[in-house]
Amino acid sequence: MKSNHAFGVVHNVRGLCLTIRGLERIISIGDRVTIKSRNNDYIQSEVVSFDNDQATVMVFGSLEGIGPGCEAQITLQASLAPELKVSDAWLGRIVDPLGRPIDGQGALCADEYGQPLKALPPDPALRARLGERIDLGVRALDVFTTCRQGQRLGLFAGSGVGKSTLLSMLARGTECDVAVISLVGERGREVREFIEDSLGEEGLARSVVVVATSDAPPLMRRDAAVSAMTIAEYFRDQGKSVLLLMDSVTRYCMALREIALSSGEPPATRGYPPSVFADLPKLLERAGPGYAHQGMITALFTVLVEGDDHNEPVADAVRGILDGHIVLDRRIAEQGRYPAIDVLRSLSRSVPGCHSVKETYLVKKARSIMAIYDRMADMIRLGAYKDGADLEVDEAIRIMPALKLFLNQMKDERTGINDAFEQLAQILSEEESSVSS
Question: Which protein family is it in (predicted)?
Fold first, then answer.
């Protein structure tokens, strides 16, 4: 009924934004407003700023058909705070950031109670600590950047270095109850390839995939990340171990930048307005352990480093928030070793708490060998190094071929964490036995 709604009118259309009059005393930042276009389509929008008696909104769809005089309305009896009605029936489904199915498999069964899109992270003084180490199924990660349940890791890489393939290996091979995969600003043609070829039927069966392609409006690309976090929180609250894979945080920040600049916020660090770096930790801190009676969200966020600059603003901010970083190196990829993980530049801050004494020794020994070889690599390639000049370098030259094979892993290959440590122990023990003999 009309009494259940409040109405305003579109006053102006500029760029990606609309200005609305008549609702400014009712709505607030973040509220959802429905716009009726001249084509009689109802388009959802969100309030992003105010200018005196006008509210500025951005739409979740196309601006076509919207002009001055179009009707804007809100439902007074409904909560204005955006939410998703997630349920267990979402497993195995592909949805857009608004929770609408896009896989052609029919309507989604919704839970009676909504999950707030903009939930706060658990109280830092009350949330649980990190759990046991989690088996990722990728040898280089399990051994050198061991991850624990509830940990948050960043995957830093330039374009075309293999991060999407690594994500698919993690989606299939990680030990977890539920996987939530967020594809933010992904190429449209690659979505189906990722789901059918990389994820597969078995991986999809335990997953919820949230997709917003590169042509989607900035609000949709932003909410592809936010909605995925909300879905992960729903399963976490049920006590489940959740794996959240987000590709990529950089495109999420780009969407935030478009929204902020369109609403009039001035650019600051390399064109990113200050609000981007205020919203980023609000999202990332929601991942991790829940309260004692809840499950945990183990999260891996990819960061697309522009021009392979690992100190650009988004990469620098993300690295400071998360519990570790994994670096994919273009030079390693060009050598044909995949996943192209630069072990020496990668770090997991939870490693000291989840390795045995023997495992710690193995990792330190292997890292030392790789560091020595890396330092002398140019001289070795040029033939300037002579055998016997340094015993440690001689050892590194003998072991590195086996270590490179250990770090190389096929896309469909999976190795358990215990087996990975056994393989590494065998490589190092064979070297020690050959030296002693």
Answer: Belongs to the ATPase alpha/beta chains family.
